[in-house]
Design brief:
single chain; mainly beta; 6-stranded mixed beta sheet; disordered N terminus; signal; EC 1.10.3.2; glycoprotein; oxidoreductase
Length: 570
């Protein structure tokens, strides 16, 4: 909405990275959005139910801005329970106050109240998204966040003839808040969804959905930029368009070397992909389809959501409509082969800044665990409760947000003793896994990093209870995925395989089932930042932690002061 905001950058000096952020911010405009949370009735799969929405829409409204802009979003909660909103993929330099995860950086926006969040964009360019970050409210509270190139610049590829946005989601016939509350109370598995959706519609393979299938109208001989977001709760997805090649040019608001030889993508919950599609087939209807990728043992929704790519013009559509050929639901090789194709553009205009000399190394195991129940009285494995952990610590969300406790030095909210490696007794390689590995420590333990440390985290998947691909997400940063492999990480031989030249830059990445993945970043964003699995059931079970980056030595390298109003903690 056009007014330049200068006050936000007064006094910003110092490190080159921050200077770069400020340069882009100084060029940007300021935008204002109103988000009204309220219950709205929707009819899908032959039944009508009330869901929590933003501005009566599912998915929610699209935020569309330019690189380096600043966005103020006034969130009014007219719903029935507290909610927070997170801007997934926005680094928020020095500004954790508006990042959004419940009881991590703020307490919920209570019914009948409002909270204005300041979203500070910096180096992000491409597609990200926003979503609720309270319990399971993000199932229906989410939307696209599109960041165009900065004014006076352009894409690193020819301008597309048009753009289309695809948001993959999940639909539950039941109340999602009741579903997760019942599962956590009983300790058993969470109910699977009843459908997947494309832009809120299940598609004509589901009951009562033929007339509402999403359609994307295109002209012959044009190239369209498809912005694809996986907002699903618990399933990674294979996605494709019948008889059309996909040229992937970006992921997680960062450009990549074009992948032009694929007819499918694999996209995890939390990830985004920017894909060019040239409409060079005979004018017709073509199915767009998304199916789950599952390599674990938990129950899942093995159905397919569809939309229609519909050419404009006069013709008789084919019958049946052409359908894309996608990998089978458990094809881990196809999923990993696609991930291996991702490489940063690493050009003069879009350079990489990969840490080379690591000053902090963290080895992080990922596990699904159990919590012991007396007399086998719970609904999980062996009568226990399902749990999850990082380095065998299952995160317990506090009642006061971690950011407030850290900023005000409040005691007894969290401890700074999260280990840089799993405990010695944690034997995740044994078969069967011993009981003392199955049962994690419970606690609100955080990782503390010095400002501007060069950090490497090696994620290690385990077979505790059962292994599967885990999409890990870090707030406040993007990171470089420098290596990955199967089996257990070898700290002598595996680093020799690292890509330090053009590794992909991401904010969410899938760690291979029972394999490892290494990521690097500079801890140059002071604040309190959540890190968690983006499979929502795993995060609910405790597969998360908090990263605190300490202030630097100057005001310009320290957390911004809090806004005048933050939602109170009850």
């Amino acid at each position: 909405m056009g007014l330049e905001k200068c006050g936000i950058i007064l006094g910003f000096l110092g490190f080159m990275f921050l200077s770069g952020l400020l340069s882009s911010m100084a060029q940007g405009n300021v935008h204002y959005y109103d988000f009204v949370l309220k219950e709205t009735n929707f009819t899908k799969l032959c039944t009508t139910k009330s869901i929590l929405t933003v501005n009566d829409s599912f998915p929610g409204p699209v935020i569309r801005v330019h690189k380096g802009d600043i966005v103020f979003v006034n969130v009014h909660n007219n719903g029935t329970y507290g909610v927070t909103i997170h801007w997934h993929g926005v680094k928020q330099p020095r500004n954790p106050w508006s990042d959004g995860p419940e009881n991590i950086t703020q307490c919920p926006i209570q019914p009948g109240s409002s909270f204005t969040q300041e979203v500070i964009l910096s180096t992000e360019e491409g597609t990200i998204w926003w979503h609720a970050h309270s319990d399971w409210t993000r199932a229906t509270v989410h939307g696209a966040f599109i960041i165009l190139p900065a004014n006076g610049t352009s894409y690193p590829f020819p301008d597309p003839d048009g753009e289309k946005t695809i948001v993959i989601g999940e639909w539950y016939k039941g109340d999602v808040m009741e579903i997760i509350e019942e599962a956590l109370e009983s300790g058993g598995e969470v109910n699977a969804s009843d459908a997947f959706t494309i832009n809120g519609q299940p598609g004509d393979l589901y009951h009562c959905s033929n007339e509402t299938t999403s359609r994307f109208f295109v002209d012959y001989g044009k190239t369209y930029l498809f912005r694809i977001i996986n907002s699903a709760m618990n399933e990674e997805q294979f996605f494709g368009i019948a008889q059309h090649n996909l040229t992937v040019v970006g992921s997680d608001a960062a450009y990549i070397k074009p992948i032009s030889t694929t007819d499918y993508i694999m996209i995890t919950p939390g990830q985004t992909m920017d894909v060019l599609v040239t409409t060079n087939q005979s004018p017709d209807f073509y199915y767009i389809a998304s199916t789950p990728f599952i390599d674990g043992q938990a129950g899942f929704n093995n159905s397919t959501t569809t939309a229609i790519l519909q050419y404009n013009g006069n013709y008789t559509p084919s019958s049946p409509i052409p359908f894309p050929s996608l990998p089978s639901y458990n094809n881990g090789t196809a999923a990993e082969n696609f991930r291996k194709l991702l490489r940063s553009l690493a050009s003069e205009d879009h350079p990489v800044n990969v840490p080379v000399n690591v000053t902090r190394s963290i080895y992080m195991t990922i596990s699904v665990n159990q919590i012991y129940c007396e007399n086998a009285s719970c609904s999980g494995p062996d009568g226990n409760k399902l749990s999850a952990s990082l380095n065998n610590i299952s995160f317990q969300t506090p009642s006061i947000d971690v950011l407030q406790a850290y900023y005000k030095t409040l005691p007894h909210v969290f401890t700074k003793d999260f280990p840089d490696e799993p405990p010695d007794y944690f034997n995740f390689t044994a078969d069967p896994v011993p009981d003392y590995t199955n049962f994690p420590t419970l606690g609100t333990k955080v990782i503390v990093l010095d400002y501007n440390e060069s950090v490497e985290i090696v994620w290690q998947g385990t077979n505790v209870n059962s292994g599967e691909n885990h999409p890990m997400h870090l707030h406040g940063f993007s990171f470089y995925v420098v290596g990955a492999g199967s089996g257990n990480f070898n700290n002598v031989t595996d680093p020799k395989t690292y890509n330090l030249i053009d590794p992909p830059e991401a904010n969410t990445i899938g760690v291979p089932k029972n394999g490892w993945l290494a990521m690097r970043f500079f801890a140059d964003n002071p604040g309190v930042w959540f890190m968690h699995c983006h499979l929502e059931r795993h995060s609910s079970w405790g597969m998360s932690t908090v990263v605190i980056v300490k202030n630097g030595s100057t005001e310009a390298t320290s957390i911004l002061p809090p806004p005048k109003y933050m939602p109170p903690c009850s």
